Automatic annotation (TrEMBL):
Record family assignment: Belongs to the ferritin family. Prokaryotic subfamily.
UniProt organism field: candidate division TA06 bacterium SM23_40
Chain residues that bind Fe cation: 17, 50, 53, 94, 127
Protein's job: Iron-storage protein.
Source species taxonomy: Bacteria, Bacteria division TA06
Name of this chain's protein: Ferritin
PROSITE patterns registered for this protein in UniProt: FERRITIN_LIKE
C-alpha cells in the first residue's frame, strides 16, 4: 500500500500534470485564433501527452490501494502577445515541472518507496525531453523573428506532430 505522504504528493502531481494539459490546450486555442493551426496541432498533441502523464500517477495510486483525490485546476492564461511568448511560458512551466519531479524523487528516496522511485525515473527522463522540445520551439521562433514566411513554414512543420496512445506496458507506468 502506498504511504499517505507519497499518495498526497502524487495527487498534487496529478493536479500539476492536468494543469499542464490545460495550459497547452489554452495555447492551442490561442494559436487557432491567430490562424496558426500547425502550432495548435503540436499543442493539442502535447495536451494529450500531459493527460497520459497524469494517468500514470493516477494508475500508480490506484494499483497500490491508495485514494485518488482530484484537486482544483486553476484557470490558465488565455492569450499571449505572440506564439514566442506562449512557448516561453511553456518552457518555464516545464522547468517548474522538472523541479516538482525532482522533489518527488527526493521524497520517494527519503520514504524508501522503491516502487514510486521506479515510476519517477520514467518522469526524470521524460522531463529532459519535455524541456528540450519546448526550448527548441522557442529557439526556432526566435530565429524566425518577424518573418511571416518563416512563421508559416514553422507552423507547417510543427503541424506534422501526431499523438499515439502509449502501449499497454507504457500505459501501466511499468
Ligand atoms: Fe508532464 O510534462 Fe510537460 O508538463
Amino acid at each position: 500500500m502506498i504511504k499517505k505522504k507519497i499518495r498526497d504528493a502524487f495527487n498534487e502531481q496529478i493536479q500539476h500534470e492536468l494543469y499542464s494539459a490545460y495550459l497547452y490546450l489554452s495555447m492551442a486555442a490561442y494559436c487557432h485564433s491567430i490562424g496558426l493551426d500547425g502550432m495548435a496541432q503540436w499543442l493539442r498533441v502535447q495536451t494529450m501527452e500531459e493527460m497520459t502523464h497524469a494517468m500514470k500517477f493516477f494508475d500508480h495510486i490506484i494499483e497500490r490501494d491508495g485514494k485518488v483525490e482530484l484537486l482544483p485546476i486553476k484557470k490558465p492564461k488565455i492569450t499571449w502577445k505572440s506564439p514566442l511568448e506562449g512557448f516561453q511560458d511553456a518552457y518555464k512551466h516545464e522547468q517548474f515541472i522538472t523541479g516538482r519531479i525532482n522533489e518527488l524523487v527526493k521524497l520517494s528516496n527519503a520514504e524508501k518507496d522503491y516502487a514510486s522511485n521506479s515510476l519517477l525515473q520514467w518522469f526524470v527522463d521524460e522531463q529532459v525531453e519535455e524541456e528540450a522540445s519546448a526550448s527548441k520551439v522557442v529557439q526556432q521562433l526566435e530565429m524566425v523573428g518577424d518573418s511571416g514566411n518563416g512563421l508559416l513554414m514553422l507552423d507547417r512543420e510543427l503541424g506534422q506532430r501526431t499523438f499515439t496512445w502509449p502501449t499497454a506496458k507504457e500505459g501501466e507506468g511499468e
